[in-house]
Amino acid sequence: MSKEIIEKLVKSYFESMSAMNSQGWKEIFAQDAVIYDPVGNPPKNAGEDIDKIFSLISGFFDKLELSQDNIFIAENSAAVKWTMNVVAKNKRNATTQGISIFEINENGKIQQVSSYWNETEMMSKLR
């Protein structure tokens, strides 16, 4: 897999999340892809759960900004250090950082995402 393809997939992942665009996510994930976000939570199936994920996100957040701080590519995978800034519907805001590991399949689709960050800490700032 070329570095350019992986960079494009990762960029689309973050742009679609920031725009709360479920259709953009559907285009970059394999139908049977698995999402661990954050790691430790039950896995989500990209094909079955994307609409539910985006419904929860858009129901809670007014604004979600994700930046890719650093990206490291090796073979068919990438590790991305990122920063997320959010504004909840109640107008409270929070910032958090994390690392996501992306596994890309032979068809150029995201097969698995494992994200490492403290969701509980961020959500406590928003309530």
Give the helix/strand class: alpha+beta
Assembly type: single chain
The largest sheet has its strands arranged as 2-1-6-5-4-3
H-E order: HHEEHEEEEH
Q: CATH fold name, please?
A: Nuclear Transport Factor 2, Chain: A
Largest sheet, in brief, is:
6 strands, mixed
Residue fraction in strands: 35-45%
Cα distance, first to last residue?
A: 42 Å
- Count of β-strands: 6
Into how many domains do the coordinates divide? 1
Question: What CATH architecture do you see?
Answer: Roll
* The CATH top-level class label: Alpha Beta
Q: What is the 3D shape?
A: globular
Helix segment tally: 4
Radius of gyration: 14 Å
Average predicted confidence as pLDDT:
96
Description:
The chain has 127 residues and is α+β, with helices and mostly antiparallel strands. It has one domain: Nuclear Transport Factor 2, Chain: A (Roll). Helices cover 36% and strands 43% of the residues. It has helices at residues 3-18, 22-28, 46-60, 119-126, and strands spanning 29-36, 44-45, 61-74, 77-88, 93-104, 110-116. Strands 2-1-6-5-4-3 form a six-stranded mixed β-sheet. The longest helix is centred in the first third of the chain and has 16 residues, at 3-18. The radius of gyration is 14 Å and the shape is globular. The mean pLDDT is 96.
